[in-house]
Amino acid sequence: MTKFYSFLKLIKPGIPKRYLLFVAAVVWTFAGGMLISRGLAMLDFKSGLLWEKILGSLIAGILFYIFMFSKISLKHTKRIVNIKEERPCAFSFFNWRSYFLMSIMISFGITLRVTGIVPTKYLSLFYMAMGTPLFISAFRFYYFGFNYKKAKTLLS
C-alpha cells in the first residue's frame, strides 16, 4: 500500500497554495464569463427594455454575491490558505462537496437550456445573474493570490 501512495504522490500535480488561489481565480473567472456570455447570446435583442433586463440581471447578481457568494469565496480562500500541505493538488481549489454541487448546477443549467422548460428570454437573465457573482468572486482569489502574505495573516 505504501508503494501505491508513493506513486500517487509522484504523479500528483502539486502546486504552491498561492498559485492555487490563481487557479481558483481563473476557474471562477471562466465560469462567470461563460455564463454571462451565454446569457447575452440568448438575450432577445429585438425585445424592449434590453438595458433594463441587463441592468436587472447585474443588480440581482451583485445582490447574490453580497448575500451568498462573498461568503462562499471567502470560505474557499480560507480553506486554501489553511491547507496543511505546502504543495496541495492543483484541483484542491474546491473541496469534494463543492465539486458535487458544481456538477449538479451545471447539469441543471444545461438541462434547462436543452429542454426548453424555461424560455430562453428568462434563462438568459438567470445565466447573467448567476455569472455575475462568480465573476466578482474571482477577484477575491486574484487579490489574495497577489497579496498572499496578507492572506496568510488575515485568514489563518
Topology diagram in text:
Layout: H1 2-11, H2 17-42, H3 50-81, H4 96-115, H5 120-146, H6 148-155
Helix pairs in contact: 2-3, 2-5, 3-5, 5-6
Strand content: under 5%
Mean pLDDT: 90
- Class per helix and strand makeup: mainly alpha
Instruction: Tell me roughly what share of residues is in helical segments.
Output: over 70%
Our measurement of the CA-to-CA distance between the termini, rounded to an integer number of angstroms, reads 34 Å
Number of strands: 0
Task: Indicate the radius of gyration in whole angstroms.
Answer: 18 Å
**Low-confidence region ranges:** none
The biggest beta sheet reads: none
How do the SSEs run, as a string of H and E?
HHHHHH
* SS summary, helix count: 6
Shape: elongated
**How many domains is the backbone divided into?**
1
Q: Would you kindly provide a written description of the structure presented here, covering whatever features stand out?
A:
The model has no long low-confidence stretch (mean pLDDT 90). α5 (120-146) packs across α6 (148-155). The protein is mostly helical. It contains six helices and no strands. It has helices at 2-11, 17-42, 50-81, 96-115, 120-146, 148-155. It has one domain.
How is this structure best summarized?
The chain has 156 residues and is mainly alpha-helical.
